[in-house]
Automatic annotation (TrEMBL):
Organism name: Vibrio nigripulchritudo SOn1
Cellular component, GO annotation: outer membrane-bounded periplasmic space
GO biological process, one term: cell wall organization
Keyword flag Transmembrane helix: no
Segment forming the signal sequence: 1-20
Name by which UniProt lists this protein: P pilus assembly protein, chaperone PapD
Keywords from the UniProt entry: Signal
Domain Pili assembly chaperone N-terminal, residue spans: 22-150
Keyword Signal: yes
Amino acid sequence: MKFLSLLFVCLLGFSHLSYAQLKIAPTRIVAQGEQASTHKLFIENTTSDPMRVKVSVVYRSALAGNDKSKTRLEQDIEVQEDLSKFVKVSPPIIGNLKPNQRRTVRVRIQGLPAEYEEGEYRTYLLFQPIPLKDDKILDDGNAQGMTMNLDFIINTMIPVYAQKGAVEHSVRLDCKPNAVRVFNEGNYQLKGKLVAGNQVQNVFLVRDSSLEKTVTHSKGAQFVVDDQIIGSCN
């Protein structure tokens, strides 16, 4: 019996994902929150063995892991932003995905209720490849006791966003001598670069969150979004 390891891959964006077992395209969905929409994902088995693939809608906290540099700015924001109940996938299980075979998964996103405030809501699609030699699907991803040709099971997540209203950013910097905390006080995700001297660091923040970056010197540091300076340290 081979030793089996479980790996988890979370994609925030790329045109496609190709990593060992599954190729998925696209790797993110962004929908208009005011109206219902349907989206197609293509999934391909890149191994030499047939597999079953389970597709689930799951919410993942932005604070997952041991990274203490991240915070959320509202206590219940993770309940507010969870899009999961508005997302349906079809089919939820691909029963037999043959080697090099491509299948389509449809994702239906309902329009958000009128009482939902303008902003960005999110969840994730979890793709779980399961060898056909296994007799049962394990909801929690555990795979102890499997006999299989694959050395690793790689679970993959891609984000699903619904944006309601026009995207606006609200950014604040807290500058310390050797660190800068970026506050995303808006209701939408934020992608930018923190530039401090010769240091350039990418920053990605979900709505209502903050992230601290270590720098050599914070004086004169700038936060840049789409080539525009939207915050600086004096």
